[in-house]
Amino acid sequence: MKKLGVLLLLASAVMLLGGSALAQGDLSYYFVTYYSNASKGSAAADAVLRIINDGDASTTEVEGIPNGNLWASIYVFDDSQELQECCNCFVSADGILSEDVNHELLGNPLTGKVNTRGVIKVIASKGSDPTDNTPFPGLHGWMTHVQAFNVAGAAPYVLTEAPLADANLVPAEKAALESSCSFTITLGSGHGICSCTPEDSDF
Question: 67 Cβ partners below 8 Å, 6+ apart?
Fold first, then answer.
């Protein structure tokens, strides 16, 4: 009987710990993905980056006060690892941000080159400055990818969709993204800054 009591106690403890862990939610705040076959004109569909705010930053403030707002700091690299554009897009609690890759994320590159493939990195932040983030969990994202049926990368194309991959934001990477973005904004003379689609203009 004692053994049964001990087993029940251990099982209860495991359930409580498991419930506590589940209650914490996903604490990720740094994500990576890729884009491919971009800027192909009418030959291929446009890829879309979608980000939602799950409300993890919400507090018990009274209704009517902005509550739980986060920003998605977005960094767009070409396939030569060069930062082409960066920006910081607002995402309210329970809101959705939809970014058109060809027009919002690649439409104003720093170098003026046409980019067809590369890497996109996102930091969920409590601050609205992509050069000085305050990482905070609560954002989740998905990305559609334009895939070619052949190794030559020519039409026809098909769209796939996948969640953004969680990544570890080490201090050196955070500093590198912020300083590169600051350099891009300062020296780009208006180039190198991506644009943000308003939340109510989802597509």
Answer: 58, 59, 61, 93
At residue 203, the pLDDT reads: 58
Query: pTM for the full model?
Result: 0.83
SS (H, E, C) 122-161: EEEECCCCCCCCCECCCEEEEEEEEEECCCCCCCCEEEEE
Tokens standing for residue 132 = 């000085």
Q: What is the pLDDT of residues 5-62, one digit of tens each?
A: 433 344 444 344 444 444 455 789 999 999 988 877 766 778 899 999 998 888 887 6
User: Euclidean distance between the first and final Cα of the chain, in Å?
Assistant: 62
Nearest of 60, 53, 22, 74 to residue 137 by alpha carbon? 53
Distance CA 53, CA 72 (A): 10
* Phi, psi dihedral angles at 99 (to 5 degrees): -115, 120
**Residue 94 contacts by C-beta under 8 Å, 6 or more apart in sequence?**
52, 53, 54, 55
Domains and CATH numbers, the chain: 26-201 (2.60.290.11)
